[in-house]
Every structure is written in structure tokens, then in C-alpha cells.
Design goal:
By secondary structure, this protein is an all-alpha fold. It is built from three helices and no strands. The longest helix has 16 residues. The two termini are about 20 Å apart.
Length: about 70
């Protein structure tokens, strides 16, 4: 996933992120995990800052996410 694709995904999901009963929060979380794994935690944290995701419950990524084996 490119960072541009991640931005598009977050932009699409963000409007409904605080609504109960949808998967927007999960999709954004998975997007951030993929970006952290593929591009590093700094890039994922930049997206968290860019979209002010801490205001919606996310925390900065502290370590690169390992893929399940």
C-alpha cells in the first residue's frame, strides 16, 4: 500500500469513524498497521498527526507491526 492509498482510505473512512456500528475505525487501524509495517512507524505517525487521529482514539505507533506467520 502506498502512502497516497493510505491517505485516500483514511479520508474515506474518517467521516464515520465516531459512529457506532460501522467498521471505519477497524479499517483505519488496519491501514495504519500496513503503513507501519511497509514504510515504518514514522510514516504511520505522520498520518496520525495529519488526520488528527489521536482525537479519535488512536495513539502513536511505537514499534513496527510484525506480520502474522
Amino acid at each position: 500500500m502506498t502512502t497516497d492509498e493510505a491517505r485516500e482510505s483514511i479520508e474515506e473512512q474518517l467521516p464515520g469513524v465516531d459512529q457506532s456500528g460501522n467498521y471505519n475505525h477497524n479499517i483505519i487501524g488496519m491501514t495504519l498497521s500496513i503503513i507501519a509495517k511497509e514504510h515504518g512507524t514514522d510514516v504511520a505517525n505522520e498520518l496520525i498527526d495529519e488526520f488528527e487521529l489521536e482525537d479519535h482514539g488512536w495513539s502513536k505507533v511505537k514499534a513496527t507491526v510484525e506480520a502474522a506467520k
